[in-house]
């Protein structure tokens, strides 16, 4: 049997899936009267709140705070609206293949050798993800110390604009039924809730295939209370130290695309604050650049130490993802993440399908393979395993003092043996799905499970050396084929860098509100909870402001 053709199929399709997860936006761009390019910013300005990062948390936070305060939202990227490459789910793939400085995605490679991406666009990660929308578990909400009623209200506030029920095609239905055959029970139908068993989750793609992002939540802003500057790169937070009991954040320095420097300060008022929502890489990076972090590390970069805080940049985690590609003898629908199996052993099983993975290739060896393949070659899909938590953690350090450069980050995938065991059980569950009656017609009989695994293990998934062959245990497969599902978090964790109100410990008038504060990734996919946190904390901060 000549498997060369299948290998070319697999390598092209998988490379498309891994590296070209793109994003789309609503077809009609909103007319935000408060949104400008940073080149139009004055050199000096004053606001009640300054939010650094117009991402998944920053947008709902800014929209909420603007109801009763003046807010400046600084976003280093551009607008998600109006770019034809990022309009429809059908063109899913163009954004992450764009490695230009104007791309909505900034690629980075962790010290582990795993290729990854961070958002650089208004709307943040909700603009470059696979769109799955699902809430955190009740247990997660309780452990976080959040007010359950306000959490629910905050989720619902977003869901009326950005969450939809997907239409399930035949392939996703087969995955769902295969999960049930594999014992991931019960069947929970369509729900946003996080409950054990197999469910259909929400999506931020509407029925017409338009993506709705966190940027859409700015429609709820008070236009007279909000100013948004795009292409505004924040270089440091300014602290008042003289005569203060402890450092107090009171301004930021940002630059526009011409390199011109701008300063924005907080107005007088005890409730006014700077809020960092720059993401799990950007937030700890900015704190360090501003002098809040491990003293010796800051000194090695000639950064003046404002506060020696050794836990900034610690606790970095990225949920490991391992995928198996299954070529299909039948045409399959174009689908992103719709179905999820929430297991009791600690893995989440998800799937995506369709020939759209072939689009937008810009990376060898994908280009070489894909240029020689016709469209039918890309029939098939991926079933993937995401490890919950995870337990393994790493750290983040500065490489340079330029905030536009990626920091160095190590996630230590599978360092904890429990993470590895969860991956093994997840891969075993994927085998059961593929071997199920429900999934039978979407696979070729001659492509046995060992062959499918070997195809995956030999694909250019990461920069790690390859060891796996079918005689080896699944632990080796997990380590060799580890990828990201872009759910990395940590670096400014609650109880270590910020308190339960997300105030940075040891300084005044500074909070961090985003995924960098998480100890674990919420739900099966975090974007709903990151958006919720922005709204939730906006409501809490405003209520405190009004009460005093």
UniProtKB/TrEMBL annotation:
Glucose-methanol-choline oxidoreductase N-terminal domain mapped to chain residues: 279-293
Signal peptide extent: 1-25
PROSITE patterns cross-referenced by the UniProt entry: GMC_OXRED_2
Keyword Lipid biosynthesis among record annotations: no
GO molecular function, one term: oxidoreductase activity, acting on CH-OH group of donors
Pfam families linked: GMC_oxred_C (PF05199), GMC_oxred_N (PF00732)
Cysteines joined through disulfide linkages: 423-478
Cofactor entry: FAD
Binding site for FAD: 121, 234, 486-487, 515, 526-527
Keywords recorded for this protein, A-Z: Disulfide bond, FAD, Flavoprotein, Signal
Entry's family note: Belongs to the GMC oxidoreductase family.
PANTHER family hit by this protein: OS04G0573100 PROTEIN, OSJNBA0019K04.7 PROTEIN
UniProt name for this protein: Glucose-methanol-choline oxidoreductase N-terminal domain-containing protein
Organism of provenance: Gossypium tomentosum
Organism taxonomic ancestry: Eukaryota, Viridiplantae, Streptophyta, Embryophyta, Tracheophyta
């Amino acid at each position: 049997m000549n498997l060369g053709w299948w290998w070319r199929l697999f390598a092209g399709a998988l490379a498309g899936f891994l590296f070209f997860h793109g994003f789309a936006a609503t077809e009609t761009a909103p007319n935000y009267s408060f949104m400008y390019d940073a080149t139009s910013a004055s050199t000096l300005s004053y606001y009640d709140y300054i939010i650094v990062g117009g991402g998944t948390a920053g947008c709902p936070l800014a929209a909420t705070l603007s109801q009763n305060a003046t807010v400046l939202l600084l976003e280093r990227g551009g607008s998600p609206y109006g770019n034809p490459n990022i309009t429809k789910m059908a063109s899913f793939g163009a954004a992450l293949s764009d490695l230009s400085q104007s791309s909505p995605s900034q690629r980075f490679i962790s010290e582990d050798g795993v290729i990854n991406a961070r958002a650089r666009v208004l709307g943040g990660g909700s603009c470059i993800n696979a769109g799955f929308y699902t809430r955190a578990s009740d247990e997660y909400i309780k452990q976080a110390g959040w007010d359950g009623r306000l959490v629910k209200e905050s989720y619902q506030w977003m869901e009326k604009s950005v969450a939809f029920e997907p239409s399930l095609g035949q392939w996703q239905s087969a995955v769902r039924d295969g999960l049930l055959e594999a014992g991931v029970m019960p069947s929970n139908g369509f729900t946003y809730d996080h409950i054990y068993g197999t469910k259909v989750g929400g999506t931020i793609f509407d029925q017409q295939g338009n993506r709705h992002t966190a940027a859409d939540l700015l429609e709820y802003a008070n236009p007279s209370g909000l100013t948004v500057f795009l292409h505004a790169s924040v270089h440091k937070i300014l602290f008042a130290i003289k005569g203060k009991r402890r450092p107090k954040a009171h301004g930021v320095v940002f630059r526009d695309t011409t390199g011109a420097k701008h300063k924005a300060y907080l107005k007088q008022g005890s409730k006014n604050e700077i809020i960092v929502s720059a993401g799990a890489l950007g937030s700890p990076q900015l704190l360090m650049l501003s002098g809040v972090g491990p003293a010796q590390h800051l000194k090695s970069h000639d950064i003046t130490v404002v506060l020696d805080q050794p836990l900034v940049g610690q606790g970095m985690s990225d949920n490991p993802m391992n995928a198996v590609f299954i070529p299909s003898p039948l045409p399959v629908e174009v689908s992103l993440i719709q179905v999820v199996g929430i297991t009791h052993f600690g893995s989440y099983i998800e799937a995506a399908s369709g020939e759209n993975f072939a689009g937008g290739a810009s990376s060898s060896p994908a280009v070489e393979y894909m240029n020689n393949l016709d469209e039918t070659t890309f029939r098939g899909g991926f079933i993937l395993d995401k490890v919950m938590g995870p337990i393994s953690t790493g750290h983040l350090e500065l490489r340079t003092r330029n905030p536009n450069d990626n920091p160095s980050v190590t996630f230590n995938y599978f360092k904890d043996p429990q993470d590895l065991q969860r991956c093994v059980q997840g891969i075993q569950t994927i085998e059961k799905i593929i071997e199920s009656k429900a999934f039978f017609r979407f696979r070729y009989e001659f492509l046995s499970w060992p062959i499918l695994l070997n195809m995956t293990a030999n694909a250019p998934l990461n920069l790690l050396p390859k060891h796996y062959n079918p005689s080896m245990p699944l632990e080796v497969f997990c380590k060799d084929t580890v990828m990201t599902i872009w759910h990395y978090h940590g670096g400014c964790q609650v109880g270590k860098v910020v308190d339960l109100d997300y105030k940075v410990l040891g300084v005044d008038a500074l909070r961090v509100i985003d995924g960098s504060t998480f100890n674990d990734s919420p739900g099966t996919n975090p974007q709903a909870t990151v958006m919720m946190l922005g709204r939730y904390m906006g409501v809490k901060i405003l209520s405190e402001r009004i009460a005093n």
